[in-house]
# Entry
Amino acid sequence: MRYLIILFFVLISCKNSNDNKSESKTFEDIHNQAIFVDSHNDILLQTMEKGYIIDDDLKGKTHSDLDRMKKGGLDVQFFSVWSDGNQINPYKFANIQIDSLDAVIKRNPKKIVKVSNTEELLSVVGQNKIAALIGIEGGHQIEDDLNKLDSLYNRGVRYITLTWNNSTKWATSASDETKKDGALNSERKKGLTQFGKEIVNRMNKLGIIIDVSHVGEQTFWDVIANTKKPIIASHSSVYNICPHPRNLKDDQIKAIAKNDGVIQINFSSGFLDSTVGKKEDEFLEKHKSEIDSLKLSGVNEYLAEELMYPKYRQESEELKAPFNLLIDHIEYIIKLVGVDYVGIGSDFDGMVLPPKQLNDVTKYPLITKALIEKGYNEKDISKILGGNILRVLKANE
# Structure
């Protein structure tokens, strides 16, 4: 069955199967003929925090809006539904975000359609519309209730990041496992509890992909030991290039490949370039008084910090990672485990510092251009741009 799935997605990873040789095509042709999938975009959060409407023109305000997504050749978007660990009634807040996406879809039936499986997805893409799915970023949003997990599946959720930076009662996060002042106490064991393993089992049965992008290493290995389906890292990069606590070490990358899963590369500069974290800390410290003033006025900490970047645009531009580092992360995984295990999980609108040149969703084709220049053929590029994660989605159904 695994090989039938792989063959199926090799065949459908391009929108059409004309026989023109790649050499006669432009990078735009190759990009637009592939099924391009981004596994992580936080634009729904922007609608919640700032009142933006994603079917409006948001150029200069966000990384994404509906028309710019299409302009960038996007075919399939997993919309992230997020809240931090302090959110009151996080399940309700998650449903409000899903409601907002449903409203956008209802207003724009000729542009975007929510899908529940790969068959529907391929049909929508064939109609030149964006296929929308949902990823829950943070398992605390199910409120330790398997019935709520089922309900979120019925609303279109097709992956869940088991933790955000905060641990749940049943899984420990990368943040808590690595920070000396993290939330774990001496009595709390790292990794999945028995209930966490029940959640993994239930997700496997429902067809919800397990996402390990924010989980701690022990949680990761517990997932590998218990899942019966391929997993993803929806927005992570390579630890050996940039030792961010949320990036994946070589043994983890190899384990995901053995599991037939996929690592979706995060565009955030701090995940690509090991020098960015320190420079970003210095930038925020420099503007600490303004951030503190905003917090006192009722603005949450994340938004208060985010507002500094557009205000001091030239300073923030200098913090960005070089574009070629994004390609380096993709190539690292290919060289380590092969081309079948890497994809795109931008984290657009969930971060403030994409790499240079890649300023918004319209710049996606630059990735295709760079891969062509590196010598990758059209078949392999189509896997990277979307075929690999479509394989995982199909395998979880």
Q: What stands out?
A: The two ends are 13 Å apart (CA to CA). The chain is about 45% helix and 10% strand. The chain has a mean pLDDT of 93.
